[in-house]
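Shape matters. As here.
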Amino acid sequence: MDDETESFEQEDTVEVAIKRILLVDDDKYLLDFFKRILSSQGFITVTANQGNEARDILEDDSKGFDMIILDLLMPVESGWKLIEFLHQHESYGTIPTIAMTGLSLSFEEYERIRKQCSAVILKGDFEIERFTATVYELLS
């Protein structure tokens, strides 16, 4: 059965098609943590350690992605560069994107990120339930 025809039941028993999510973070422990959360919810997850690796995956992957979740601060290529890349390409610009950051943000910084992405998640204020609810909301 291919990705497009597989399905699973959420906790509220609503039938949902399997979605593919690209996770991008340079912290391998956080990447594994988020991958396990999303996989436990039935999502197919593909991971990248840097923005440039994510770009390569996007360009080489024929199935496409339903969502991108990325860290803003990465040493080789930042999430900001990846966001810029996504907005420059019509086929990627409509993919819901969640930006994650461990930074303390001012209201202005938060709004700047929010204008570029579908949602912003602060790693220091992380709650699994809120994270999964945000993912489901953006994919619905």
Remarks:
- Residues 7-139 form a domain with the Rossmann fold fold (CATH 3.40.50.2300).
